[in-house]
């Protein structure tokens, strides 16, 4: 890419395109209920999420795909949509809580599959705020002189969820994860000039606020010396999340608006945190009323962790007209990270 | 495992769900007053009932105020 005479504001980074990937066919609540040995009715009532995707067979548990598969698919779509080839991409940032291996990083594997070489490749270990962290780092790299780069986020559940028949005896903090999460990946191409979708990234909020607070979400892993450990691999303090995430979302909204000098009437679209259909609805109810239209995906995709903001932005794009503004809110409850970003179509 | 007897039902819920329930006095405790009772424990109860061959609609379970009323539904739906 060469810098033209109508180059964008040098202090602005642009989102040129997105790409997403969800594995296999949607798994509905009947199938998820079968996996857990219950009818779908409880999931319908208390979670509200209608479908999710798994890269593993919900009947046999057989793993059919990796995080690298999903991220490479999403990344390729984003690059195609931006009209960029491997030679145009100058960095990769990938965020995940569930890498395929600790080393090599999934980010390097994805770079290889996309035909990228001789460029910085970063992997961020993060939960629900990882996409925003990737966007934050990607934006910094572009502001530092890179012309275009790929940011990705994704998660897979096969190490943590599986067909279970002991639902009744599973700790509630573990069980809740089985009805919330799904697999998915998303990507975006960032550029230093308005390209493709011509969306200016006006602001990124990425702030750890967990000092002294117990974790809301635990995701552990076992190694050679402790593989027989009985400590929980997965635990969500869903009561703390229900209590704190709505309030944190309000804080994030005002932080982003205040930083930009925008008001509620200035935003056309709102991308709220995507925990579950019911929980997202509760969060939105607590947000101050405004004209912004909600863009959510969780009812169809389930909670895909690091992929969620990309899935939401992809749903935003067909509706996003020149001059429109959007605000995305994100809370990572593992240790309480407040995150979000503001977009404006130029 | 038959859950026709209220005492067996209460012991099963106590032991399998790990809830602190007095048997038989806990039968009439309001569900909301059972230590740790919440919607996820309701899901575990649904799973426990289905394991035992009892499929009670969740919307009916939500009408129950105590484990005695849950047990009445278990018998009603067979």
UniProtKB/TrEMBL annotation, chain A:
The keyword Cytoplasm applies. InterPro entries: ACP_syn_III_N, Thiolase-like. Pfam families: ACP_syn_III. Keywords: Cytoplasm. Residues 123-199 form the Beta-ketoacyl-[acyl-carrier-protein] synthase III N-terminal domain. This is 3-oxoacyl-ACP synthase. It comes from Streptomyces amritsarensis.
TrEMBL record, chain B:
It comes from Streptomyces amritsarensis. InterPro entries: ACP-like_sf. It comes from the Bacteria. This is Carrier domain-containing protein.
């Amino acid at each position: 890419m060469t810098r033209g005479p109508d180059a964008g504001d040098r202090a602005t980074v642009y989102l040129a395109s997105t790409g997403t990937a969800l594995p296999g066919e949607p798994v509905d609540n009947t199938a998820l209920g079968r996996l857990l040995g219950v009818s779908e009715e409880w999931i319908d009532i208390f979670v509200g999420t209608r479908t999710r995707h798994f890269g593993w067979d919900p009947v046999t548990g057989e793993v059919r795909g990796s995080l690298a598969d999903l991220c490479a698919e999403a990344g390729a779509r984003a690059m195609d949509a931006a009209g960029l080839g491997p030679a145009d991409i100058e960095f990769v940032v990938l965020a995940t809580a569930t890498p395929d291996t600790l080393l090599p990083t999934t980010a390097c594997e994805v770079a290889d599959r996309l035909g990228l070489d001789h460029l910085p490749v970063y992997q961020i270990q993060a939960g629900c705020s990882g996409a925003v962290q990737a966007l934050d780092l990607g934006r910094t790299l572009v502001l530092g002189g890179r012309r275009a780069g790929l940011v990705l986020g994704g998660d897979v559940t096969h190490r943590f969820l599986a067909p279970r028949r002991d639902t009744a005896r599973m700790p509630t903090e573990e069980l809740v994860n089985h009805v919330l999460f799904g697999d998915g990946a998303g990507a975006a191409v960032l550029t230093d000039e308005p390209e493709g979708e011509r969306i200016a990234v006006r602001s990124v909020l990425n702030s750890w606020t967990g000092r002294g607070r117990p974790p809301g979400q635990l995701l552990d892993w076992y190694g050679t010396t402790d593989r027989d450990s009985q400590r929980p691999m997965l635990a969500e303090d869903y009561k703390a999340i229900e209590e704190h995430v709505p309030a944190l979302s309000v804080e994030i909204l005002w932080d982003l608006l205040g930083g930009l000098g925008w008001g509620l009437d200035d935003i056309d679209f709102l991308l709220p945190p995507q925990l579950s259909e019911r929980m997202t609805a509760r969060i939105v109810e607590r947000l101050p009323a405004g004209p912004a239209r909600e863009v959510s995906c969780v009812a169809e995709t389930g909670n895909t962790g690091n992929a969620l903001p990309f899935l939401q932005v992809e749903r935003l794009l067909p509706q996003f007209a020149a001059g429109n503004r959007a605000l995305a809110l994100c809370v990572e409850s593992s240790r309480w990270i407040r995150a979000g970003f503001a977009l404006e179509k130029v | 495992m038959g859950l026709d007897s209220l005492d067996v039902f209460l012991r099963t819920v106590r032991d399998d769900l790990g809830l602190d329930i007095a048997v038989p006095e806990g039968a009439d405790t309001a569900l909301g007053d059972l230590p740790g009772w919440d919607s996820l424990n309701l899901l575990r109860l649904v799973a426990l009932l289905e394991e035992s061959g009892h499929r009670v609609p969740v919307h009916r379970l939500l009408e129950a105020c105590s484990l005695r009323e849950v047990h009445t539904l278990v018998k009603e739906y067979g």
